[in-house]
Write a structure and sequence with these properties.
With about 325 residues, the protein is mostly helical. The protein folds into two domains: about 90 residues; about 220 residues, no CATH class. Helix content is about 75%, strand content about 0%. The chain has a two-stranded antiparallel ribbon. Helix 4 runs antiparallel to helix 5 and helix 9 crosses helix 11. The protein is globular and about 65 Å long. The protein starts with a helix and ends in a 9-residue tail after the last helix.
Length: about 325
């Protein structure tokens, strides 16, 4: 059964990955769901099924498109999904004879690290020449800015040179890619876990997600990555991607903080509705604020100071 599930999940994931070449908005949405079948296979059966799905999907892409495409699938989609699913089901025995499951805060930190590795992996699949990579990224930003100016989506001062602006923005692109990978991995993990739970195949009890908080070492990793990002080259790209990934992880931690501290409060529902609506219409403003909230919570333990009630038994 496991080989059939793994191969089937890998082929579905490969199809979702391949449709991105059409360039349509729907294709981009389907591409973002490419890790979902691998997550479902790994969570619902076991991590070996997820690893088999990764191999099957990579082989299918390599045969249908190109060997480099197969490598990209494995590095960007398959292996990150398999590894995070493996950690999510990791457990050890406790003193009471029960199981102590892998903490969600540590899992979120690993999602950030995996996102950074996927970012640098996608860059190296594109080219191993750093100058060529910078040139490709700059050209992509330049074309995007030209389209936005032409469509009157943005207005730039007359003295701004778009080509020069694109070159200045290029070093920050890995930061955004790392953050987007964290969002994609986290969303697919949650959707897969819900689907597997509905089928009663999830080995792990459903955790109390609002209690998720990053460990304090994430702060040191953020500072270290910010320093290393100034090195340049592919090392700097990896560090910059890790900075973006960690900031996105702190954003999720901040969102969990709001869910946690508002339990039992009469203003909980309107507050959460306002936050999620603002995430859609004012994402550029609210996302940094949530990241700061997550940073402060990790640094000073706001939840411990607030003496919150224990999590519900059945979440």
């Amino acid at each position: 059964m496991i080989p059939i599930v793994g191969i089937g999940a890998g082929l579905v994931s490969a199809l979702l990955f391949a449709v991105v070449i059409t360039g349509s908005p729907l294709a981009a949405l389907l591409y973002s769901a490419a890790p979902l079948p691998i997550f479902i296979a790994a969570l619902g059966w076991n991590h070996r099924s997820g690893l088999l799905a990764t191999a099957a999907g990579a082989l299918a892409i390599a045969v249908a498109l190109s060997p480099s495409g197969g490598i990209a699938f494995a590095l960007i989609i398959g292996l990150p999904a398999w590894w995070i699913a493996y950690l999510a089901l990791l457990a050890r025995g406790d003193d009471q004879g029960g199981a102590e499951w892998y903490p969600l805060g540590n899992l979120l930190l690993w999602i950030a690290a995996t996102a950074a590795l996927a970012t640098i992996g996608s860059a190296l699949v594109m080219t191993t020449d750093y100058d060529a990579y910078r040139m490709v990224i700059s050209r992509m930003i330049e074309n995007l800015l030209n389209e936005m100016v032409r469509g009157r989506l943005v207005t730039l001062p007359a003295d701004v040179d778009i080509k020069e602006l694109a070159q200045n923005l290029a070093p920050a692109v890995p930061l955004g890619i790392g953050a987007s990978f964290v969002t994609t991995i986290t969303a697919n993990l949650w959707l897969a876990a819900r689907a597997v739970k509905l089928s009663d195949r999830l080995p792990r009890p459903w955790p109390f997600i609002p209690s998720t908080a990053l460990p304090r070492r994430a702060l040191l990793l953020l500072v270290g990555a910010a320093v290393v990002s100034a090195v340049g080259g592919f090392v700097g790209i990896a560090a910059m991607a890790f900075v973006g990934a960690l900031l996105a992880a702190f954003m999720f931690s901040g969102l969990c903080l709001l869910h946690d501290i508002s339990r039992g409060r009469p203003w909980r529902l309107p507050m959460l509705i306002s936050v999620y609506v603002s995430l859609v219409v004012m994402q550029a403003v609210l996302t940094p604020l949530l990241a700061v909230a997550g940073l402060v919570d990790t640094a000073f333990g706001l939840r411990r100071r607030a003496a919150l009630p224990p999590p519900p038994t059945h979440s």
